[in-house]
Amino acid sequence: xxxxxxxxGSSSVKYQVxxxxxxxxxxxxxxxxxxxxxxxxxPNHTEALEIMAKNLEEPLHGxxxxxxxxxxxxxxxxxxxxxxxxxxxLQKIDDLSPLAPLHNPAHVLGIxxxxxxxxxVPQVAVFDNAFHSTMPEHVYRYAVPExxxxxxxxxxxxAHGTSHDYVTGIAAEFLGINRDDFNGIIAHLxxxxxxxxxxxxxxxxxxxxxxxxxxLVMGTRSGDIDPSVLTALMMRDPELTPAKxxxxxxxxxxxxxxxxxxxxxxxxxxxxxxDERAKLALDMTSYRLAKYIGGYHVAVGGxxxxxxxxxxxxxxxxxxALVGERLGALGIKLDPxxxxxxxxxxxxxxxxxxxxxxxxIPTNEEKAIAxxxxxxxxx
Length: 379
Ligand code: AMP
Known about the structure:
Blueprint: E1 2-8, E2 13-19, E3 28-35, H1 45-60, E4 67-72, E5 83-84, H2 87-95, H3 104-117, E6 123-127, H4 137-140, H5 146-152, H6 161-175, E7 184-189, E8 193-199, E9 202-206, H7 227-236, H8 242-251, H9 254-259, H10 264-272, H11 276-299, E10 306-309, H12 310-315, H13 317-324, H14 336-339, E11 347-348, E12 358-360, H15 365-378
Parallel strand pairs: 1-4, 4-6, 7-10, 10-12
Antiparallel strand pairs: 1-2, 2-3, 5-6, 7-8, 8-9, 11-12
Helix pairs in contact: 1-3, 2-3, 10-11, 11-13
Bound molecules: adenosine monophosphate (AMP).
InterPro entries: Ac/propionate_kinase, Aliphatic_acid_kin_short-chain, Aliphatic_acid_kinase_CS, ATPase_NBD
Binding site for Mg(2+): 7, 365
Binding site for substrate: 71
């Protein structure tokens, strides 16, 4: 089956075609690409998808797309698993836009455009927060007045769920543990970063919240912050509107604010050449992460593994080492030599006498979306 995986943003479309012929576990990438500048150089999503379809003509050699899988950021508490898209589903994704104002409207445009470009081809929505739907109420609720929750849907939703789910499955398999019996901690560290506590193969808790701003210190996002900072500053400075504050916390904070650069490579290099701001940024980022790891170890009743994934988690051995140094109290020890090996396959980077294994597992959200799409279409 040829599956087109689409990740549609407000101004860009990232796509990949995967051939799931034979084993669903072993999908092959046939083509991939990125179309940018929608709304400026390219008028709209329909034209962007027409360009994509043209780009795909040659690599597809006349074969047709059998199914389309869309990454959808916010499924609220309505969608807890991937679904076949129909008018009703599309409307619900649109209705959830207040919870993901940058993403869901773009997904709706992408789905409509795909319907025009590929009429009759089944389309599946794979929700970024679906994996987190198993969080119990005492974990996902905030201690604020009830009507925030009932009227506005204010609760923890989490994000990166497709990645956390995929990596959980690979980790359990790699360790030879039945997924249903697996307790672990998954650190998805990319430009956006989140950590998930997995209990019995399911999400118990995750660091992102109502929006993807919460939790860890990220490339340009603050992560956890005392909410009074916002109200106090906004009361003091009338120029700090909610929109401005939102922009500052999402785009001008994190590593960028402290170290002056949001790319982990550059920040590590700066630290190694003696830059104090870079050192502070890395101390803050690794400290926050280690604190979450300790908390989640308790939350799941003892994790059987700690897993690093995504851009930083997979590639930055110096950052992993900084985190590892803070985990001594848990008996977790990284092996410097194993930690320095770069691999496309899952690997262990802890010592033999580490209390639990520490793994690096490459994530693959497109593959996970393609697999979920095939499953929904086949059922
Ligand atoms: P992602 O969002 O998962 O694509 O991750 C992107 C981030 O990964 C970038 O902003 C970099 O900070 C980080 N990254 C990618 N490659 C490396 C590398 N070789 N060393 C350190 N950080 C890296």
